[in-house]
């Protein structure tokens, strides 16, 4: 089994991912809060998580991955204050919270499809697991880690083992209660305590409420990920993923409550892709005017050009979005498709078998390269290297197909590759030479006839400063 190395937020080092069961990986992903469209920043996180899952599968692991859909409980502040985001979405659009959830969950899946993000096998809306949340909160009560105050149920963080260990920061620098914009909740025993179940303080207009041993109410945001992960992936989780903003308080709280409930360490590796920002700062769903996949499409960009844009840089670096840099990625993407199409055509023409030994060498190098802290840009460099290498077209084709299992750029689907012709058009290239001669001899009739012949073959002649080029009609 190939070893995959990855930066671990908890240990602050790049280290091999050790799975609890050899050859089997469990992975949990914090899913979207479905009160609005996902913006391309959210989708950067999901793209990088997708590549990670596919890399493990490529390296021979059996992967079991689960993701929640946050359709209740996520307040406008991560610190248990403000309005429920779902309720805000519902108000904005004059719909019910469930209608909003259904609509934006489908929109999220649609975006994932366009970006070749595989939907995890297990996707669980929070509202479908209320009984599991209640059961987990009950365990926390039984273990003396939860208490009631002011009508709500809180987790007592003084009972957590090394509560701040994921962040690597001191309590003071992270204390939610001391942030200027957040008023302290006087019900809490410790400033870092958080709500497991709301009954009193928030629900003024809350639509979605359930009976519980502690009163009619609804769950806090953090409990859903612990409960869903424990239910579907068991007590030992190999990788937990989410954007960098999730480290505190969300993942910190997940660790506290999961470990308090199970009584031992829970998750061994924490994966946190950095944010995509725009020039004005962090992208945020609540800011309005957000950049979505549809907005990019309307501006004429293929969604997979955005995927390439993300793969070109390391997930641990913040990425600044601009249309200029997307345009560069889009042009690189078209060239990549066109080269892949040429190779495919050459391989089909040659009708050879790929060199399996060479293919295995490339596979090995790909896992080594991308498996060294998810270095996707070096993976792309290896792809370019293989495309230029002194190996048969059939072998190149096999390498492209193989790498694309992880990169998922549809390198051989051919659709966009049609922008530049593949190399089975040598007879048309010859006609271009003849046409150039005809023009030089001022034989316009012949030049026109050649243009018509090329057109009949499905290509247009485009005159450029570097000479005439073929473009597929
Ligand atoms: P949300 O729908 O707000 O719960 O976020 C969904 C995922 O996107 C979470 O993993 C967030 O951490 C992540 N995320 C939020 N903002 C950004 C951003 N600007 N860039 C990258 N990922 C983000
Ligand atoms: Zn989560």
What can you see in these coordinates?
- This protein has helices at 40-58, 85-93, 97-114, 130-142, 171-174, 221-233, 247-262, 293-298, 303-311, 323-350, 356-370, 376-388, 393-407, 426-440, 444-456; strands spanning 5-8, 13-16, 24-29, 62-69, 122-125, 146-149, 152-155, 194-198, 218-219, 237-241, 267-271, 276-278, 281-282, 319-320, 459-464, 467-472.
- With 473 residues, it is of the alpha/beta class.
- The protein has 3 domains: 5-273, 3-Layer(aba) Sandwich (Rossmann fold); 292-407, no CATH class; 426-472.
- The strands form 5 sheets. The chain has a 5-stranded parallel sheet, with helices on both faces. Strands 6-7-8-9 form a 4-stranded antiparallel sheet. A 3-stranded mixed sheet has the order 13-12-14, with helices on one face.
- The longest helix has 28 residues, at 323-350.
- Mean pLDDT is 90; it is low at 176-182 and 417-421.
- Adenosine monophosphate binds at residues 30, 32-33, 41-42, 44-45, 70, 242-243, 245-246, 275-276, 282-283, 285.
- Residues 30, 225, 242, 250 line the site of zinc ion.
Q: Which class best fits the helix and strand makeup?
A: alpha/beta
Low-confidence stretches: 176-182, 417-421
Biggest sheet character: 5 strands, parallel
CATH superfamily annotation of the largest domain:
HUPs
Portion in helices: 40-55%
- Total DSSP helices: 15
| Tally of separate domains | 3
What are the distinct ligands in this entry? adenosine monophosphate, zinc ion
């Amino acid at each position: 089994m190939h070893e995959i190395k990855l930066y671990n937020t908890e240990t602050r080092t790049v280290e091999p991912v050790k799975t609890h069961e050899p050859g089997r990986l469990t992975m949990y992903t914090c899913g979207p809060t479905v009160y609005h469209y996902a913006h391309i920043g959210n989708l950067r996180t999901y793209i990088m998580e997708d590549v990670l899952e596919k890399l493990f599968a490529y390296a021979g692991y059996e992967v079991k991955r689960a993701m929640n859909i946050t359709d209740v409980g996520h307040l406008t502040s991560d610190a248990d204050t403000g309005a429920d985001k779902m309720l805000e979405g519902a108000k904005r659009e004059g719909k019910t919270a469930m209608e909003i959830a259904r609509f934006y969950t489908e929109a999220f899946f649609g975006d994932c499809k366009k970006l070749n993000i595989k939907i995890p096998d297990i996707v669980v809306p929070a509202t479908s697991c209320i009984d599991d949340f209640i059961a987990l909160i009950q365990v926390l009560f039984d273990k003396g880690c939860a208490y009631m105050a002011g009508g709500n149920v809180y987790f007592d963080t003084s009972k957590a083992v090394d509560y701040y260990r994921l962040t690597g920061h001191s309590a003071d620098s992270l204390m939610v209660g001391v942030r200027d914009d957040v008023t302290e909740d006087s019900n809490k025993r410790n400033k870092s305590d958080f709500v497991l179940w709301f009954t009193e303080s928030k629900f003024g207009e809350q639509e979605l409420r359930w009976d519980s041993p502690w009163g009619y109410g609804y769950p806090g945001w953090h409990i859903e990920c612990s409960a869903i992960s424990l239910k579907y992936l068991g007590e030992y989780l190999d990788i937990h993923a989410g954007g960098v903003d999730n480290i505190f308080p969300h993942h910190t709280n997940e660790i506290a409550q999961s470990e308090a409930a199970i009584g031992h360490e829970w998750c061994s590796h924490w994966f946190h892709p950095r944010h995509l920002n725009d020039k004005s700062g962090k992208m945020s769903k609540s800011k309005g005017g957000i950049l979505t996949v549809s907005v990019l499409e309307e501006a004429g960009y293929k969604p997979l050009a955005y995927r390439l844009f993300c793969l070109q840089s390391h997930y641990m670096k913040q990425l600044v979005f601009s249309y200029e840099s997307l345009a560069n990625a889009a042009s690189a993407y078209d060239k990549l498709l066109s080269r892949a199409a040429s190779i495919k055509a050459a391989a089909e023409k040659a009708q050879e078998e790929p060199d399996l030994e060479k293919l295995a060498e490339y596979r090995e190098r790909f896992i080594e390269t991308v498996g060294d802290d998810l270095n996707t840009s070096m993976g792309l460099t290896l792809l370019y290297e293989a495309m230029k290498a002194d190996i048969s077209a059939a072998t190149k084709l096999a390498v492209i197909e193989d790498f694309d299992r992880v990169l998922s750029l549809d390198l051989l689907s051919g659709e966009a590759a049609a922008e530049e012709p593949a190399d089975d058009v040598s007879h048309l290239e010859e006609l271009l030479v003849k046409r150039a001669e005809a023009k030089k001899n001022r034989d316009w009739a012949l030049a026109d006839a050649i243009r018509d012949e090329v057109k009949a073959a499905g290509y247009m002649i485009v005159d450029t400063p570097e000479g005439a080029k073929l473009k597929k009609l």
